[in-house]
Each structure stands twice: as C-alpha cells, then as structure tokens.
Sequence to fold (123 residues):
Amino acid sequence: MPEDLNPIPLAFWRSAAGREPVREWLRGLSRAEKRIIGRDIAKLQFGWPVGLPLCRALSGGLWEVRSTLPSKTEARVLFGFHEGTLIALHGFIKKGRKTPTDDLALARQRLKELKSWHEKTRT
Fold:
C-alpha cells in the first residue's frame, strides 16, 4: 500500500474493568483466521468507504466486517465510529443467516457506553 495513505485508526472497545473482548476473542482463533480478519479490517481502514461483500451497514450506527475463514465459517466484527476512530465492539463466528439480535444488542450497548463515557469526560 502506498505510504501516503492514512488509515482510519482502530481501537478495541474496553470495559470499565479494562477487558477488551474483541481482542480476547481474536486471541482464541487460529493464526490463519486472525490473519484473514486482520487483512479484512486493514482493507476497511485504508479503503473506507467499503461496501459488500466486505462491509455492510447495520442499524444504529453499527457496521460489520465480513470475513470468510478457511473452515468456510463466517466471522463478523461489529464496529462503529467515534471521533474518527473505528471502534471494534464485538466479534463472533456467525452460525446462521441472520446476525443474532443478542450480538447486535451487545455491540449497540457498547457503542452507547463509549459515547456516553466520552460525553461525561468532556463536561
């Protein structure tokens, strides 16, 4: 990639206890799976806006990075943007056609918490 391109910064959502669930989820994957997901996120960072089949908009300010893993399973990283930074909110292996509502709700809650925390620290 050319050196004059500036990628969108990436951050992992962090809980009040300091845990980073997406980073922890990634650590549990094989090296090949991590490599594929990492490359897909890099394509997003360097090529935004990116559409299907790599990236899809969800409701409520959420987006998903769609990665096909060697085992023919589908990995998803749900993310949002905050102050020009791509925030990885939740990662999972997709088991059905639809994104589970629990996974969407968790990512939305994390994005809401992040924005709320930043609002509190500004005042």
In short: The chain has one domain: 10-122. Helices lie at 21-27, 31-47, 101-122.
